Amino acid sequence: MARAAGRTLGAPKPRILPWLVSKLDQGELEGVAWLDRRRKRFRIPWKHGLRQDAQLEDFGIFQAWAEASGAYIPGRDEPDLPTWKRNFRSALNRKEVLRLVEDRSKDPHDPHKVYEFVHSGARDSSQLDTSPETNEGGSTCDTQEDILELLSDMVLVPPPDDRAPEQCAKHVLSPNLDNPVPCPNPAPSDNPLKQLLVSEEQWEFEVTAFYRGHQVFQQTIFPQGGLRLVGSESGNWTLPGHPITLPDPEVSLSDQGVKGYVRRVLSSLGGGLALWRAGQRLYARRLGHCHAYWAMGEELLPDCEHGHKGEVTKDMDSNVFDLGPFVADLIAFMEGSGHSPRYTLWFCLGESWPQNQPWVRRLVMVKVVPTCLKGLLNLARAEGASSLENTVDLHISNSQPLSLTSDQYKAYLQDLVEDMDFQAAGEA
User: Which residue range or ranges hold the IRF tryptophan pentad repeat domain (predicted)?
Assistant: First the structure.
């Protein structure tokens, strides 16, 4: 009978703990061994794939489980060391009878992890686990290990079929706005940072509106399919994106003339100013008659000195943010050779951009902050506290806070840059 990935075709997937005990007993995989005579504590080699001395043999246990579980068929599938490692770790982390005793994966000479069975009956391999194995992703307890081990596996891929980003974006917010088609994205991954690229995972945005420099509105949302800045609650709800209604200026402004002008801007928004994500980029499009200009600025101030980046037009989608250059700038910032990367989008509605002028005199200014990017920068700013652990919540879907030292963060961002083609991302 044909064999598939180390098991008989059609046979049920083996349970990992009895399988692992058999491998420990056989002692055939280098570095995989019992550490005590009671067969309760054992070690697993755990070398990072980007180390210069990494060899395929260092991933023997991960490949063996990939074959046994049917995730990898030699000769048919391409080797995927990071995925093998991630799936093995996630499978172990889901078992309550196991606990991680020592994490020596950063040991320069012998990187490994030590696990221990915590139940007295765990030594009987037939009683180790009665639950079926699944292909579900890792639990939230995997999150910290994912960011430390898997940042290097994150690849910011271009849209499929060699389509330009603008073409791909138009499928997200297509001319047929009643039937938006989602842009294909990379498959979901256990790596929490890869969620930044997965269409099913929503970015959280903090939206703040100003009338003549006075803050009149602020809301933090996970917008399904993007967001739309609109001027009336009775706007077109058939359009995609979560509508955010800017408030009437009656309460916030005292000057009757200014109130009238602000209302004219709001009424001309029509279908709204749309902002949405496609892969690693953010796009904007004007759906009404109200002209809009945009720029990247500081979180407290728009960039009035250098002017706007462009106008959001009706006839084409505007690429207003790219994650690739942001990560490149973040690494340069941590190395002391660059400025703090910007992540805050500012929109000026109904008037020209306030270049070299006080922005507080503009009728309507709207600030949009992707909170996940703010969290990444806040962690990078803890560069001087390398001996401390700093926690950041990426605010992607239901992701959990991540905790790691700034030294670790810097090291793995540097690993990440090797897998990203920033130049292509910046030119796209």
Answer: 13-119
